[in-house]
Amino acid sequence: xxxxxxxxxxxxxxxxxxxxxxxxxxxxxxxxxxxxxxxxxxxxxxxxxxxxxxxxxxxxxxxxxxxxxxxxxxxxxxxxxxxxxxxxxxxxxxxxxxxxxxxxxxxxxxxxxxxxxxxxxxxxxxxxxxxxxxxxxxxxxxxxxxxxxxxxxxxxxxxx
Length: 160
Fold this sequence. Notes:
Shape: globular
Number of strands: 4
Helix content: 40-55%
Mean pLDDT: 95
């Protein structure tokens, strides 16, 4: 899994992309994704270009945004709306990368690790928001504190 400065390094050294193992996971936010594609701004076809990128390098790419999208090596899209304004702050992407990495280390296949990570991250942030009373008050560490609850929730019916 590559995130943050690793993505910036890949964007600056595009030949390194060919060295990524098949099935690698990249987790850029829109700015990092633009740099990976080598564009200054997204055009109307940016998702198609990202799909081609994933197919070319045989990787997964999680575009992190208000509604995140996972693009798999076949160029297929899976959208996730488990986000919340509580995640629109520094450190949230690092938490998500850690969650996904931990799941991958437990032998979850890449796609399942990303999807489960998105769910757990989002649900933990939603609960932290309720406890703080406002999404803007939530710290990334408080999201991490709620991961155990989110994991336990997998055995329970989900309330939105």
